[in-house]
Specification:
single chain, 231 residues, alpha/beta, Spore Coat Polysaccharide Biosynthesis Protein SpsA, Chain A, two-stranded antiparallel ribbon, 10 strands, 21% strand
Length: 231
């Protein structure tokens, strides 16, 4: 059993890969996003704690920039920490390479540190139920319009069948490996790679708390949440 494994209940051991090698330039800070402090702990620490609190028998693999492996290992000693690549897909493949021979693999954004335990469990349960690829998603609340390069509205998009996709994204191990076998193109998420090779992707209910910290506004909300819980 790999370092970082936290047995909680019977059943297949789950590997959770957390790509955290991005620079986070949109936050406008001088450090990678995962290492930003939220108020007593980093985004990465809160993310790993959230995985372990989800009770999914999780082996956690964190993928970070090569020069931050030792620092990350000190922050999250319950996880296996490895260096990542130039792109997200390369980092996920690095995580797959060192993960245990588990039946289920989740890929979870480090920048979603408040994802509730029920979302993790819903994804795992859906994979156990027979879906090879599962993503959490939320209905889209805003009106959506398709525009051309000049900004002229072409039409209003029906939002009813649309979902805003979050993580963790769950896969059978063979499905995730197959999705990453073709490295000829990049995708914004792993489910997109699975779709590209014809794997059906199933959506379960996401949660507003699983929002992604991307902009300074997101970071402000995250820090406010931490302060609110600490009161």
């Amino acid at each position: 059993m790999a370092q970082g494994t936290k047995p909680i209940f019977g059943g297949p051991l789950t590997s959770v890969i957390i790509p955290a090698a991005g620079s986070g330039t949109r936050l406008g800070l001088d450090q990678p996003k995962a290492f930003v402090d939220l108020g007593g702990s980093t985004i990465l620490e809160r993310c790993v704690d959230g995985v372990l609190d989800a009770d999914i028998n999780a082996e956690v693999v964190v993928v970070v920039p090569a020069d931050l492996v030792e620092h990350a290992a000190a922050l999250v000693p319950s996880a296996v920490v490895v260096p990542g690549g130039a792109h997200r897909s390369e980092s996920v493949r690095a995580g797959i390479a060192v993960s245990g021979n588990t039946d289920i693999v989740l890929v979870h954004d480090a920048a979603r540190p408040f994802t509730p335990p029920r979302v993790f469990r819903a994804v795992v349960d859906a994979v156990l139920a027979g879906h090879r690829a599962v993503v959490p998603g939320l209905p889209v609340a805003d009106t959506l319009k398709r525009v051309d390069a000049s900004g002229r509205v072409l039409d209003t998009v029906d939002r009813e069948p649309l979902r805003a996709i979050q993580t963790p994204q769950g896969f059978t191990r063979d499905a995730l490996i197959a999705a990453h076998a073709d490295d000829s193109g990049l995708a914004t998420d792993d489910a997109g790679l699975a779709e590209r090779i014809g794997i059906d992707v199933h959506v379960v209910a996401g949660d507003p708390l699983a929002f992604k910290i991307t902009t300074p506004w997101d970071l402000r909300i995250a820090r406010d949440l931490v302060q609110e819980v600490a009161r």
